[in-house]
Model the fold of this input.
Amino acid sequence: QLQLVESGGGLVQPGGSLRLSCTASKSTFQYYAMGWFRQAPGKEREGVSCISTSGGDTYYTDSVKGRFTVSRDNAKNTVYLQVNRLKPEDTGDYYCAAGLTTVQRLCALQETIASWGQGTQVTVSS
Done:
């Protein structure tokens, strides 16, 4: 299993931006589809964005389309989530996840996830 460590969260005003990073412990990272999930206070964890092993296939949940961009650098064992035009409803704990599955299944079926990061908190507030 991969060990995943997220960073980049913080407090930001509405309309602001952050770049979340998730670095894996092993070079086998390149064989895993990767995803970002978030859990808002009092809500279930949801798949926000996922990316295939090569980066050529991506998925975004409707509420973040056009604002969030997922990318990966397999040479650095790192996946990124650029979050722009943040809204208060984007507030939550953001988790990185890895799975040996397709992009769509990774984001839709949390039972396909092999490894989770510890999470990084994003707070959008004025």
Remarks:
- The two ends are 39 Å apart (CA to CA).
- The chain has a mean pLDDT of 96.
